[in-house]
Design goal:
The complex is a heterodimer of chains A (190) and B (947). Chain A is an alpha+beta fold. Chain A has seven helices and eight strands, in the order H-H-H-E-E-E-H-H-E-E-H-E-E-H-E. The longest helix of chain B has 15 residues. Classes of the chains: A alpha+beta (190), B alpha/beta (947).
């Protein structure tokens, strides 16, 4: 180590050189600190989003890199949240990138004791087959109370959570109503 | 609120709380459950506002409030009713506001009898149907030709209720001691309401009236006028009664009453905030309505810093009712048609909004035609009544709890659970799981293997031996879902504001948005019936389902929002987006999937994605997102000006009449006909928006007024009345009638209830429990128990008890306790805390136990586990909206862990036997509370059981 460098790195010299007279800024950073970069620095994209937990509707900024979410934080521009997030909203990056999150279909056959794998296309076809058959099996045109023209099936029900988008709720209500499946419900009732 | 004001949404926006001079938070722990929204309460406080928290528990909301007032869970109407009485008897009401903007002067039918006359019942109660015929609650008509009373849906409701007796009940009548309560209480009359009169269907339009020509007494002296009826109804709701029923002392009551009265008027406004602490009761709708009446009397509606903030619990709860995944309504709060009552187009439309009534609900035919055009396009024509026959018909309540009961009978084949966890999050978790075990197939769409997907493998009933995996025939599909960052779309948050999210990344692996899944499922279902000649398949085949897809084959979500907004189909503007619901026509020349959202895509711009920074616009922030209706941020804001159209005060200025321009103007979008002058009086024969007088601020109400008295729209009474919870250790001190006589019950051996009042056996379940949320977890835990950060912050299920109760039952701090309700046995860690206050109620000490409900056993991939509080809760519902009573139940608590395996069930049975519980207990619709000193009480109880 050269004497000169050591001398120039003396704290008091650094404080004067860096105009950090109180010694609370750049003069006292360690090499490690100097190398730290914000994790969003080399993000590919950032988009506007909204927190999926409670209904306050706090605005989030979501940063992504290589097709993966790398950071979520509050958006200061929001007139409602003013950049703030609660513990749940702050933890939402873990919700998205959870280690235990499932990204493939699981199937349990009747009387089965464990999950099996199934590809998505097959699963969707099987569900569509069952939907059509169940709809028919439980179809009701009249009931025993004398009501007629009911045009409905009592065999298919749905319970949705309230993290469904308006567009999703709309398609579900539209499809199920057209199919005559009236027993559609939502967390809003609960 | 729908029945009081005409729309069911929060009346204002969260930031507006900062303009309040007094904020009462009741039925909500806002600081912990809506922490970021709570900053506006803090802001108000810094500007000098007084903040009062009324809640059974002392929470972090209480900690920063000026005062915490502990209350017995389920007694809110007594407190709010006493405030109404205080305001009326001390002449503290806002006279000019009340006289002009409410129905105070309207005369009510001579046939109407109050709960004061009938010891807790209103006129029109049918004991057999356990439902009201509402015709005697009607206004007196000034038109000699008009029939008094409703000939519409309401009065027909009873008939329907009768036809629907004895639908589902808990399965095993075999093992019940007698088939008690069955037909009678399995209850039906949710149905009545589901058609045209339920509270929920008034999300954006009040109940229908035949006309708006009503007899009035402007002096408010006539004994039949609403004002006098209100006075009489609440005369016995006194501070002494508040002390006796709520456990609130007179000094606390005086503080609350003075705070509200001195902070209301021309120059000041007060606001209420509530959440599910008000909704989850058998009289939940009426609790909210009591506050709505009080706010009208104080003149706090439609004004800055006033109103009632409904705090919804989940990102798009408001959106899920506006565009409902609910059985009883169509988008925009149009009702699903009810068989036997709305069998044809004309009857259906007239029952929603009569052409002769006032306001914008009279145009419901246009809203409905637009919806049908959006769904069935060219197949919906005037000739076929806009394909009205394609709609399935309801015959009763088909809510989630009725569906679970139907599952128990094998009445449901397939069940989709989409981002929800009913095995943990719904009342009586055991019935939820047992119901699923009887399905043919189950589809669960979620991020993680939640308990509703794994109950067949590791649920509590597998552990106890009640179910065996190898004997469960349910086929289960678990499909991975996309998160909020992996799809674009809009949420509607608590203040009716639509906010668009952009997509950040593609979903991983096979994960899919729900939009894409249901779009593809729809395609596949349509392919399967493509060659069918069966008329029942026409609605599917004629459905408009041709959405554009992007390069990756994904449906474009903006195209769905455009369809929701609606477009011109004919004329020079064909193809263009509608600008507002005023553009909607009933002749088929326009479409629109949800009329209240029309305008969100005006000028082909997605206004839900508007993001002008708060630093670059005023406090109303109209350029951030888009609020229904018509981007109005404070509803009924015509009332922010006096009858002459001038602001009540400079301090509370919002919207006013500009006499030079001859139109309404101000800081918010006026919620009124823009050119109707304050002194305008509509001709007698007018209908619709043209019939609104210049002093009718409640533009969705059939008479333009805020409803102190609801002649229609609520199935359990025109005025809120205190009833005890279905399960309550306290006899109702106000009336002979113990509980809401129209509540919806489901008697069955797995849905037992402890006695009410002091019947034999109530001493077995002597304590009141109430459930709640924590900041660090979310609902049934599907979005929090799998997250290490949140799980570390709140690792274990616990219960909160007072030091007095801990001493009485020998509970050790941080040790284990076993909590037993008539439905379940669970265990929890004990938190002994002075945050829980024992209350003196009617001469007896009532201890309350607090239990958060986020945990569950099973679901082995979760980070943390614990017993589910919702297993404790029974299924008994509010008759207006079919929401369960999860905020009040009876329990016992004892030290130590619960037994495992079959021992758990044995302990429950021992309790049930000791208390003498049978399915009829507490499930009789009519009933007096039995006093402890009544020598006949045990016999009566037995008789009750045999009925």
């Amino acid at each position: 180590m050269k004497l000169g460098k050591t001398f120039l790195e003396w704290p008091v010299i650094r404080q004067v050189r860096d105009r950090d007279l109180l010694g609370r800024g750049p003069a006292v950073t360690s090499p490690t600190t100097r190398q730290i970069r914000p994790r969003i620095e080399d993000a590919d994209t950032v988009v506007n989003s909204i927190c999926p937990y409670c209904a306050v509707g706090c605005a989030q900024k979501v940063w992504a890199k290589d097709g993966k979410v790398i950071h979520i934080e509050g958006d200061d521009n929001s007139p409602i949240s003013r950049g703030r997030l609660c513990p749940k909203g702050s933890a939402s990056e873990q919700l998205v990138n959870s280690q235990s999150r499932l990204t493939s279909v699981k199937y349990r056959r009747p009387y089965g004791t464990d999950w099996e794998d199934l590809d998505l296309e097959t699963a969707t076809d099987m569900i569509a087959d069952r939907f059509v058959a169940t709809r028919k099996k439980y179809w009701q045109e009249q009931d025993d109370k004398g009501h007629t023209n009911l045009h409905r099936t009592m065999g298919i029900a749905l319970l949705g959570g309230a993290t469904l988008d308006n567009e999703e709720n709309y398609l579900i209500k539209k499809l199920f109503t057209a199919a005559g499946a009236i027993q559609i419900e939502n967390q809003a009732r609960i | 609120m729908g029945a009081s004001y005409g729309r069911g949404g929060a009346t204002q926006y969260l930031q507006d709380l900062a303009n309040s001079d007094c904020i009462v938070i009741q039925g909500s722990n806002m600081a912990e459950c809506h922490p970021v929204g709570f900053q506006w309460v803090e802001e108000a406080k810094q500007r000098g506002a007084r903040v009062i928290h009324v809640d059974p528990r002392f929470t972090r909301t209480s900690a920063v409030a000026d005062r915490h007032i502990p209350i017995r869970a389920g007694s809110d109407i007594v407190l709010l009713g006493a405030l109404i009485n205080h305001v009326l008897s001390k002449d503290l009401w806002f006279q000019e506001y009340v006289r002009n903007y409410t129905n105070a002067s309207f005369l009510v039918s001579e046939k109407f009898l109050d709960t004061e006359d009938l010891d807790g019942l209103f006129s029109g109660y049918d004991e057999e149907l356990t439902a009201y015929d509402m015709s005697s609650w009607a206004y007196q008509s000034s038109d000699p030709g008009a029939a008094e009373g409703g000939e519409g849906a309401d009065s027909l409701g009873g008939e329907n209720a009768k036809a629907d007796k004895a639908q589902e009940q808990d399965e095993d009548s075999d093992s019940s001691p007698g088939t008690i309560g069955s037909a009678d209480s399995s209850h039906p009359h949710g149905q009545t309401q589901s058609g045209a009169s339920s509270g929920e269907s008034h999300g954006s339009g009040g109940p229908s009236l035949e006309h708006a020509r009503v007899k009035r007494d402007e002096t408010l002296q006539d004994p039949r006028c609403v004002f006098q009826l209100l006075k009489k109804h609440y005369a016995r709701y006194t501070p002494e009664m508040v002390k006796r029923i709520c456990g609130i002392d007179e000094e606390d009551f005086a503080y609350l009453a003075d705070s509200l009265a001195s902070n209301s008027g021309r120059d000041r406004t007060s606001a209420f905030c509530y959440a599910v602490g008000w909704t989850q009761h058998t009289d939940g709708v009426q609790i909210i309505r009591t506050a709505a009446i009080l706010q009208l009397l104080l003149g706090n509606v439609g004004r800055p810093g006033g109103g009632i903030m409904a705090l919804r619990g989940h990102a798009s709860i408001q959106g899920s009712t506006d565009i409902p995944t609910l059985y009883n309504i169509l988008p925009g709060y149009l009702p699903m048609p009810l068989a036997g009552q709305q069998d044809d187009w004309d009857t259906y439309i007239n029952s929603i909004g009569n052409k002769k009534q006032k306001g914008f609900w009279a145009n419901s035919d246009a809203y409905m035609v637009c919806l049908m055009k959006s769904w069935w396009g060219d197949a919906a024509t005037k000739e076929n009544d806009w394909a009205f026959n394609y709609l399935p018909k309801l015959t009763g309540a088909h809510g989630t709890y009725q569906t679970v009961m139907s599952m128990m009978h094998g009445g449901v084949g397939g069940y989709f659970i989409v981002g929800q966890n009913p095995a943990v999050g719904s009342a009586n978790g055991r019935l939820q799981r047992l119901g699923m075990a009887k399905l043919d197939w189950l589809v669960v769409r979620d991020f993680q293997l939640i308990e509703s997907a794994t109950w067949w493998k590791d649920g509590p009933e597998i552990e106890s031996g009640e179910l065996e995996t190898e004997k469960i025939g349910t086929e289960v599909f678990f499909l991975p879902a996309a998160t909020h960052t992996e799809k674009a779309g809009s949420f509607t948050q608590t203040q009716r504001l639509l906010q668009w999210r952009d997509k950040a990344v593609n979903p991983p692996g096979d994960a899919q948005s729900d939009l894409q899944f249901f779009y593809l499922l729809g395609q596949k279902i349509r392919q399967r019936v493509a060659d069918s000649g069966d008329p029942r398949d026409r609605p599917l085949l004629d459905l408009t389902w041709d959405y554009p897809v992007d390069d990756e084959g994904e449906i474009v979500p903006q195209s769905v929002l455009r369809e929701i907004n609606g477009r011109h189909l004919a004329g020079p503007k064909a193809g263009q987006m509608l600008g507002s619901y005023l553009d909607m026509k009933a002749d088929g020349s326009t479409s629109g999937g949800c009329w209240i959202y029309t305008g969100v895509y005006a000028d082909s711009v997605n206004h839900a994605a508007d993001r002008v920074s708060r630093h670059d616009q005023d406090d109303v922030a109209a350029k951030w997102g888009w609020a229904w209706p018509a981007n109005r941020r404070i509803l009924y804001n015509r009332a922010s000006a006096d009858p002459d159209g001038k602001p009540w005060s400079e301090r509370k200025k919002l919207v006013w009449w500009d006499p030079d321009e001859k139109k309404w103007t101000g800081k918010d979008v006026p919620d009124f006909v823009p050119t109707t002058a304050p002194d305008y009086r509509a001709p007698e024969d007018a209908g619709g928006p043209e019939a609104l007088d210049g002093n009718d601020p409640f533009v969705m109400q059939a008479d333009g007024k805020g409803w102190l008295f609801a002649p229609r729209g609520l199935v359990d009474g025109p005025l809120p009345t205190h009833y005890e919870a279905n399960e309550s250790p306290v006899p109702n001190p106000l009336y002979g009638q113990q509980s809401n006589p129209t509540r919806v019950t489901f008697p069955g051996k797995r849905n037992l209830f402890a006695g009410a009042g002091r019947v034999r056996g109530t001493e077995v379940f002597p304590f009141v429990f109430t459930t709640y949320r924590l900041t660090e977890h979310h609902t049934a835990g599907g979005m929090s128990r799998w997250l290490p950060y949140l799980s570390e912050l709140q690792p274990e299920m616990f219960c909160e008890v007072s030091p007095e109760l801990a001493a009485e039952r020998g509970l050790e701090p941080y040790g284990w306790a076993t909590i037993v309700s008539p439905r379940a046995v669970i265990e929890a860690r004990v938190l002994v805390t002075e945050r829980m206050t024992p209350l003196e109620i009617n001469g007896q000490t009532v201890h309350q136990v607090g239990v958060p409900y986020h945990w569950a056993t099973g679901g082995t991939s979760a980070v943390v586990h614990g017993d589910s509080a919702n297993d404790l809760i029974g299924i008994v519902l509010d008759p207006n909206v079919q929401i369960q009573e999860s905020k009040v139940g009876s329990c016992d608590i004892r030290p130590g862990r619960r037994p495992t395996g079959p021992g758990r069930e044995a302990l429950l049975e021992e309790y049930q036997q000791r208390a003498g519980l049978i399915p009829g207990t507490s499930n009789q619709s009519l009933g007096k509370a039995h006093r402890a000193d009544d020598p006949r009480r045990s016999e009566e109880n037995g008789e009750e059981a045999r009925q």
